[in-house]
Specification:
about 120 residues; alpha+beta; 4-stranded antiparallel beta sheet; 4 helices; 4 strands
Amino acid sequence: MRQSPSIVPLDRLDRDIYLVLEDFGARLGCAWRETDEQDTDRETVLRDLLSGQYAYPIKIVAFNAVEGWSRDATEDIADALADRVSHERIELPPALEAFVRANSSRPFGLQLALPLRGAA
């Protein structure tokens, strides 16, 4: 039997896709953000996080439907954000900073303790 070609171009799907779960608060709850297809690559998600497109990210997943895998990419993205903050001296909004602190495997925003005068 002859197989028909797919109407969906495979090269569009044969790539890593990143989706962000965002917390919209107690009343609305969490939801996977609707995103244009071309804005689901790693670099665009990083750029969108840094520019404030996501206010309260909770979890980030990566998948490749053609290769048949998916994984939790939260730590990977948090590490990438921590690296950019330290190299490019970017200031993060409080919610994104909390996301990085909670999920990064690297020290983030390490502040050294200063001795206080007169404290014993």
